[in-house]
Amino acid sequence: MCLPVLSLYALTASAQGMDSIQHLENVEVYGKRPIATSQTLRGADLQALATTSVADALKYFAGVQIKDYGGLGGLKTVNVRSMGAQHVGIYIDGIRITNAQNGTVDLGKFSLSSMESVSLYNANKLDNCQSASEYASGATVYMRTRRPTNDSLSIQLRRASFSTWMAKVNAQFKWRRWSGFVDGEWTYSEGDYPFRYHSEYEDTVGRRANSDIHYGRIEGALFNGGFSSHIYYYESERGCPGGIVRRLSDKYINVAREWDRDFFVQASYERQFAERHRFKVNTKYTNEYLRYCTKYPENQNTARVDNHYRQEDGYGAVCYGFMPWSWLSLSTSYDVRYSKLQADLKRFDDVHRLDQKQVIAAQMNWHDIQAAVSLLHQHYHDFTFANAGAADPLDRWTPTLSVAYTLKKLTMRVWYKKIFRAPTLNDLYYTQVGNRNLKPEYTKQWNIGVEYHYDKRQWNASLQADLYWNKIENRIVCLPMKGTYTWSMMNYGYTFCRGLNATAQGRYHTGEWQFSLLTSLTWQHDVNRTDPTDEDTYDKPICYAPTLSTGITAIAAWRTLQFTASYLHVGERMWSYADPDDVLEAYNNVDVKLSYTRQVKKTSLGVCLEVCDLLDEQYEHIPRYPMPGRNYKLTLTFGI
Q1: What is the pLDDT of residues 232-258, one digit of tens each?
Q2: φ/ψ of residue 85, rounded to 5
Q3: Which residues, in sequence order, are CB contacts of 309 under 8 Å at separation 6+?
Q4: Are the C-beta atoms of 178 and 151 separated by less than 8 Å?
Q5: Which residue from 343, 281, 347, 275 is spatially nearest to 315, judged by alpha carbons?
Q6: How far apart are alpha carbons 432 and 346 in whole angstroms?
Q7: Chain-centroid distance, C-alpha 571
Q8: 3 state SS of 381
Q9: Which of 456, 348, 365, 374 shows the shortest CA–CA distance to 406?
Q10: In a 3-state reduction of DSSP, which class is residue 88?
């Protein structure tokens, strides 16, 4: 869990000159406020935060937990309401980013420079023509790229702590009905930040080694009315430093290395006919390569491997929406995805997966009452030539129901969703660990919420609060089977979670001044209910789930000068049942950012100074992976 942001419809900068409540990128349920619990950061809000990647922005949403393995190059995954990263769907321009191998998406690979908005939805985002895949996750993150309105060129140069250099170019064009952009970035960092790891039994001081990264990213998009397309390429090499070993950090160094190469191209076309019919087609092709190597003489206590993984993924969807009356919308969609995984592991054969989804949905907007219901069908069929054969096909139906009532500026909502995640290819087929008999991991969610908006000429405010209950059955976990050297994926456990998410935002402007305040609060009690006879684990908190998280972001702007301060508090978290008293300590993170832009005719010059982790708390998301602590970023921008 983490913090701020709101379901704020936006807090767009004065330069954009539009009221935040009127600026809605995607009208949901015919212009009414969304039934689903949603939070959004868009436009100037994203630029105001001291953030680099999408993962950095998501930590400001209520109910979100970020797992970060330290440093600029660390893997960054998102977990919503303690359901697990595999239950979160990540979308860019309405099409899902997938990983059939392990089911997680590294959000550190996606930059905010080309993003118009980042949104988080619990339950379903409700549009009357969307793909079946968008109904298939416990929570969804939507990244929407910016639609250019004119020709422009922007160049950024950044110098940051730990020998970090960055260069970025963004070119946008607008020609007749066509628009598009090209965004490229190159970054290098040695990542050699100093650390001090202190506990009751140890006090280790050193400098992080093998934490370097260099990567290049280039992406582009093309738009024309209902047509949109996106192409993306990312290539990196990084060190995997491993956890800090007590008093031995200068002697034993993990020298694992990782190489990534990700590519995808996608397109979508949407058309409306006679005001009652909508039709949409999505297509995507993905190709990913990963190499992980530990065959180095410095590694004295690590298994020596040099593994290569290759994934290919083809996807298509057809969606249709029909409005027989102005107050009722009916829709259906069929999605198909074909994935292939190759690896040079011993006794591992190529695995192919056919994933099909169908949905039928209805939405109603009758006076002040809104309602939505959907029924999702998912079918998974794996193919392999391994001696043990493929897992049995998986075929399930799952429902979702949402109801809301709006009374003037107050909206009350309640929703229920049952969903599952299919075992990943790693879960089923990974050498010596995979289990072909795994069952899907079911999640049942209940939510009761309220949302209030108030607007006046100079200021507006919104409040949102949701009580929720989650129940997860047949959790897929890795457990030891025969001693500590033989592990296997198993369906083990049942967890129950209840919590409260609350967000608030306010915006005030007078003359050339703009003031904004974004806040959030998450209280959550997530416990293990697997075995009542096990006193060590039953009714104990789930690992890595803090009880309390909260945050505040304040933004003050005068003309083209802007100052932002963000505060994040995350409570203590248990990380192992073996020693419940050994916990990850609570931490407070403060980021500040000061930026200034000067316009000279058609040229803009900008300078930005960011100080991250101002209090220099080297907190941990994962045990023995300390974060970098206080660091600085100086960015120069030139635009025409």
Answers
A1: 999 999 988 877 765 454 555 667 899
A2: -60, -30
A3: 101, 288, 289, 290, 291, 292, 341, 342, 343
A4: no
A5: 281
A6: 10
A7: 21
A8: strand
A9: 365
A10: strand
For residue 595, give the nearest of 563, 565, 639, 554 by alpha carbon. 563
Cβ atoms 217, 184 nearer than 8 A? yes
SS3 state of residue 193: coil
Is 5 exposed, middle or buried (CB count within 10 Å of its CB: 0-12, 13-18, 19+)? Answer: buried
Kindly report the number of other CB atoms within 10 A of residue 532's CB atom: 8
Per residue in 587-635, pLDDT tens?
Answer: 999 999 999 999 988 899 999 999 999 999 888 887 888 888 899 999 9
Burial of residue 183 (number of CB atoms within 10 Å: 0-12, 13-18, 19+): buried
Residue 283 structure tokens: 């297509």
Residues 487, 493, 494: CA angle, nearest 5 degrees: 160
Cβ proximity of 576 and 599 under 8 Å: no
Tell me how far apart the alpha carbons of residues 98 and 277 are, in angstroms, rounded to a whole number. Answer: 29
Instruction: Find the DSSP H helices in 297-433.
Output: 425-429
- The pair of three-digit structure tokens given for residue 402, joined into one six-digit string: 């949402």
How crowded is residue 629: how many other Cβ atoms within 10 Å of its Cβ? Answer: 17
The two beta strands, 441-455 and 459-473, are: antiparallel
The tokens for 455 are 């607007």
Q: Is the pLDDT of residue 436 over 80?
A: yes
Say whether 428 sits in a helix, a strand or coil.
helix
Q: Report the helix count and the strand count for the chain, using DSSP H and E.
A: 3, 35
Triad 23, 24, 29: Cα angle to 5°: 150
> One-letter amino acid identity for 497?
C
Q: Count how many Cα atoms sit within 13 Å of the Cα of residue 174 in the half-sphere of its side chain.
A: 8
